[in-house]
Amino acid sequence: MNAVGDGVGTAHREDGRPNTSTVYIPAPDGTPLATDLHLPDTPGPHPAVVIRTPYGRTAHRAELRGWAAHGFAALAQDVRGRHGSPGPWHPYREHEEGDGTATMAWVREQAWSGGGPVVAAGASYAAHCALATALGPPGDGRPDAVIAAVPALGLAETAREPGGPERLWARAGWWAAHGDRPDSAPGALTRALAEDPRLLEHLPLTRLPDRLGRALPSWPELWDACPRGRTVLRGSTSPLPLLAVGGTRDPFAEDTMALWSGWGGPARLLLGPWGHRLTADRTEIAADRVNLGALYVRWARAALAGRLEPERRGVITLGGSGRWHGVRRGDAQGPTDSSTRTTTWPFDAPSGLRLLHGAEFTADPARPVRSDDLSVPADAAPADRCLLLSPPLPRPLDLLGPATARLHATADTPAADWAVRVTALDPAGRAEPLAFGIVRRTDPPGETVEITVPLGTLGRRLPAGTRLRTEIAGHHFPAHARNPHTGENPVTATRLAPSRRAVTARGSALHLTVVARRRYVEPVPEICR
Q1: In a designed cystine with 475, which of 62, 239, 297, 368 is the match (CB 3.0 to 4.6 A)?
Q2: Using CA atoms, how far apart are residues 167 and 161, in angstroms rounded to an integer?
Q3: Burial of 26 (0-12, 13-18, 19+ CB in 10 A)
Q4: Buried b vs exposed e over 346-366: b needs ≥16 C-beta within 10 Å?
Q5: How far is CA 9 from the centre of its chain?
């Protein structure tokens, strides 16, 4: 396969050839995929790293220079239909695998590569591209290692929570900015909300493009039912080395955990105190920070040289402590080893969670509990949530691993979402989000049932004096679409109805995984061995 340079790039090697150029790599159907290429100053052949992104290849030029400075040929490519690459833009479709495979094969044909090793890397959607390529057929089109940061694993995984509810805010923002267009409009949803603050309240949700003022033909298709877990299942048979990077504040953290836990080859996990942009809250101390660029280079060298030990290893932050905790093995529910244990906080014991109000409450989609407001009304009538509070912690508590709420509860409607939000209150009463989960249920109306709500993987040190506030509600809007309680699809529903709920304290509890035996590690050496 051939590629044509366009003369872009101003840095040159000592022999006069440009370090940086833009080439067009042909996809299997001949579509030219715009790709920035940065070569090291030293003679080849070089190992290579490939990033395929919908967010604009030019945003990666500093990253490419960093890889090249460490001896890697570095490429960033616009995926089909985005920015410099022509063609239709269909997120998460099968062509990402074929386009990635063609790009890998082209890299190995180049003289500066010499058929050498290639790493597929990326964050968010680019991680999806890296994984799709890594899980392709064996041969020159498959990379030798993969780095997947805050991975957006697929259409189903990004559209809905594992428990069913639709991720409305995140998907509306992403589609408004990037959907059905060759470029991006950052902040498009924010601007639309400034004009109509109730934009996401209008029904049906399928009409959102009309209110945004532009065509989004792929928006309704986003919500079509499709199976979850395909990438994780395929990864279970992959022999390739994997570095999975995520954040305890990232909405896709559990997908990162599942990918690492189920991967077939040597797998490494770094779960830091970060959100989806891999940045930490300002309250995190400097010791929590990791130079991800330096880590990626060091891990890639170890992976390509075959120096990684075969077992699964990882490190998880203990946010707020400056410490990282090593984990050696895991399953789909998170890390499990002898260094942790599960503690139970029952709803009906003085040492657990004390009911403040709302043993019976009304989940009204016309007045939903909001995801963007941590304040709790003191005396709402009728109650819109069940509210519980723990005593102050007598000593610091290190949380590390999966958290779960198990409820004995009743709804009077055939369809009901159950949202659980756990907030850490410091001695001064300041609130910080700690854990969240939401599930959709279709139980017989009026029947008390046991409901399990996974709350994600935690990595946090809580200081003495902290209290845990737990809210149980029927909505978490606008982060998630409102369940209309009519049995209709929340995306196409046109009417809403209240749902009366009851939570039985007996048998209900919050389950948290805590550190039983400290296993502090330095994250970079642990991940690279």
Answers
A1: 368
A2: 7
A3: middle
A4: bbeeeebbebebbbebbbbbe
A5: 34
pLDDT at 6: 35
Backbone angles phi, psi at 405, to 5 degrees: -110, 135
The per-residue pLDDT for 282 is 53
Tokens 């599930």 -> residue: 439
CA angle 444, 445, 447 (to 5 degrees): 70
Return d(Cα 254, Cα 237) in angstroms, integer: 20
Strand partners, 327: 314
Region 76-97: mean pLDDT is: 97
Q: Which helix (H) or strand (E) holds 220?
A: helix 219-222
For residue 227, the model assigns a pLDDT of 86
Type and span of the H or E element at 304: helix 292-304
> Is residue 211 a contact partner of residue 199, using CB atoms and an 8 Å limit?
yes
* Nearest residue to 123 (alpha-carbon basis) of 142, 99, 149, 147: 149
The span from the CA of 427 to the CA of 285, in Å, is: 19
In the predicted model, what is the mean pLDDT of the chain? 92
129-147 average pLDDT score: 96
- pLDDT-wise least confident of 37-51, 272-286, 426-440: 272-286
Q: What is the CA radius of gyration of the chain?
A: 24
Q: Does the bond joining 478 to the residue before it have cis omega, within 30 degrees of 0? A: yes
Query: Could you give the percent of the chain with pLDDT greater than 90?
Result: 87
* Residue found under tokens 């269909």: 90
CA angle 417, 477, 443 (to 5 degrees): 5
**Encoding tokens for residue 242?**
């994997």
Residue 392: is the preceding peptide bond cis (ω within 30°)? no
- Model confidence, pTM: 0.94
Task: Render pLDDT for 221-240 as a digit per residue (tens, 0 to 9).
Answer: 899 878 899 999 999 999 99
Give the bridge partners for 402, in sequence order. Answer: 457
Tokens 């890998």 sit at which residue? 104
- CA–CA dist 407, 439 (Å, integer): 12
Cα–Cα distance measured from residue 335 to residue 271, given in angstroms and rounded to the nearest whole number? 11
